[in-house]
Amino acid sequence: MMQNSDSVDQEQNLRVRKLEISDKGKGFIELLQQLSVCDSVSDKEFQDRFNEVSSLGDDHIICVVEDELRGRIIATGSIFIEKKFLRNCGKVGHIEDVVVDSSARGKQLGKKVIKFLTDHARSMGCYKVILDCSLENKAFYEKCGFKQKEVQMAMYFV
Amino acid sequence: MMQNSDSVDQEQNLRVRKLEISDKGKGFIELLQQLSVCDSVSDKEFQDRFNEVSSLGDDHIICVVEDELRGRIIATGSIFIEKKFLRNCGKVGHIEDVVVDSSARGKQLGKKVIKFLTDHARSMGCYKVILDCSLENKAFYEKCGFKQKEVQMAMYFV
Question: What is the annotated quaternary arrangement, including any partners (chains A, B) (predicted)?
Fold first, then answer.
């Protein structure tokens, strides 16, 4: 596999980091639109939500991968830390909204995002990390070290 | 069905409400032990976790059903509200840790807990509520109005 040299080459221009307020101008919302419904978000709405999430500190972080040559966000994923009474007042990391830009797939960016998020959960003392995915993405998460556990049920209000 | 009269009779002694700090003395931890691993929790640990969850206000609530004649907590479930950028800065309710005391099953207490939690999510403006469950509990959640959506993946650290 040529993956290693590609990966090194990529890494020179890629940065894996937490979401910053300026990422709205780097295509963060457009990236999310590849995952689910997301109309345009105003600067004010973005800033308000950014502040709400930031107020939780390490309990809710959003990881992004920036292509620094192009100044574009090309992958993202989030995690929040749930505090339970179960498991001796244990903590669980919940991974959400993982997406890689359609033009940047096959570059292991999804794995980088998942590693960033699971490392964070481990450092926060979580006893497990969970996520929900479609059947077609199951194999990807298995490669990342996840195992299928339960079924996800949903109730939609809108 | 005789369910209605049973339910009315039950309701005279049952209260569905948010967790209170005094619920540790009413068997809340012992109830959770019917769901998963939970060794005894000290008063200090309980209070610290209670305060952490309470600090999130309406963004993380724990519902309990108290049998007021016996002074015991006989059902519980929790929900936290995740704030997203997706769905036009939408919110999602995550239901966790639903359990009904083994001596109190068949009395629709699970449904009461789920109704309390989904009502809360709706009032908070969530566009959906999700939860993970075993295949054997799927039919129960379908009766509550949920539909199977994805698969849950987990990575355990301990």
Answer: Homodimer.
